[in-house]
Amino acid sequence: MSEQLPEVSSRPAPKVGFVSLGCPKALTDSELILTQLSAEGYQTSKKFEGADLVIVNTCGFIDDAVKESLDTIGEALAANGRVIVTGCLGARQGDDGGNLVRQMHPSVLAVTGPHATQEVMDAVHKHVPKPHDPFVDLVPEVRSQFRGEAGIKLTPRHYAYLKISEGCNHHCTFCIIPSMRGTLVSRPVGEVLGEARALFESGVKELLVVSQDTSAYGVDVRYRTGFFDGRPVKTRLTELCEALADLAKPHGAWVRLHYVYPYPHVDELLPLMATGRILPYLDVPFQHSHPDVLRRMKRPASGERNLDRLLAWRAACPELVVRSTFIAGFPGETEEEFEHLLSFVREAQIDRAGCFAYSPVKGAAANELPGALPAELREERRARFMAVAEEVSIARLKRRVGATMQVLIDHAPALGRKGGVGRSYADAPEIDGTVRLLPPEKASKTLKVGDFTRARIVAAEGHDLIGQPI
What count of Cα atoms within 13 Å lies in the side-chain half-sphere of residue 255? Predict the structure, then answer.
């Protein structure tokens, strides 16, 4: 007697609208949720209209981000009416001590904090039942979005973010991230390397390593030994980078580090950069240079030795590019302390620098510090800082003219016959400059997104370089 196959439903798969706001760490949370949705047979859409419900992954770090998130939730409610909220804003308290999102938008279906894939999926299942059907799950059009163990990615196919840990152990007075994302939890090193390998095998040419504090990877598990492909690997940044470099090499791919605090053991990474195994690029969130300001900020690195450490890094790896972020107008900042910061940027030769005028964040300890500066002065200092930072950055860019650089192509319409846009090792996507590529001189030369090309740098314009493909 033959076994009767279960009846396959012909109903269309439920559709979930999705929007992701905020930083790369939030983007990786979105990727996990989208991967799970697709694995369970849900369709996803960037549109609110026509969806069975909408998920909004929010940011809650600074006031502008909070406003954008609340506005987006309001737009989703107006267009659809059925909204689940996740992300950092979901963890923030309102004025009444309750949940801020529910205070502002009481009709949302559910609210979770960041890094909460299962809680989001539980809410989705409650309001739009799971369409699981083993005969139609992961049909080719869904499966094609997957990158092996890595799942769905929201970045272009040739680069991807790899989150190695969640949360932060520091208590910087201007920051509320630990209250939203919790203390440091490092991902198992074997799991991280498995995702990295899947990404390289799927065609990723640039892996951007992110976390709240990349240098602290493994501190919470006392750098315990994990395993990858049966081999022991220490849960520590140096050993992780060595293993990532080995995985990247057969694919000719880049490994780029973000959010690297200037701890002493970061020195161990410079030989990997000097030999080209990982990119000679460090994203170091200094925030300030003056020791007294850094103490008021409760930064994990005191500042006295940051300049010496930077100079030692550049001596060990002359090609090193450093980007950083700073805060101007922190409570109590004197003109002398601010001038110290300007001198630091000049002496340290920070290649790429961003600056925020200090802004009080609800729940941050810095709000209680004496010496709050007028908003006009904070903005004026931010503008002065950026003028100096841009002067340094442009001077360093001009030194590239005449050099030949490897460029990863991000945009090349018509096979690049009219040129294209790419990035060198000195440029992280969306936050740094670009290399604007001229039309190739040889008719046979084509440019393709996701490929590398060599380019002779012929000019520097603002934050960008102009390159002639060769």
Answer: 29
The CB-side HSE value for 300 (13 A sphere, CA atoms) comes to 17
Q: For residue 41, is pLDDT > 50? A: yes
Burial classification of residue 178, based on how many CB atoms lie within 10 Å of its CB (0-12 exposed, 13-18 middle, 19 or more buried): middle
**pLDDT one-digit tens code per residue, 16-27:** 999 999 999 899
Chain position carrying tokens 């460090």 = 282
Residue type at 216 in one-letter notation: A
Would you place residue 144 in the very low, low, confident or very high pLDDT band (cuts 50, 70, 90)? very low
Confidence of residue 8 (pLDDT cuts 50, 70, 90): very low
C-alpha gyration radius of the chain: 24
Alpha helices, H only, 226-281: 237-248, 270-274
Q: Who's near 144: CB < 8 A, 6+ residues apart?
A: none
* Residue 58 CB partners (closer than 8 Å, separation 6+): 21, 22, 26, 69, 72, 73, 85, 86, 87, 88, 89, 90, 101
Average pLDDT of every residue of the chain: 92
3-state helix, strand, coil in the chain (%, to 5): 35, 20, 40
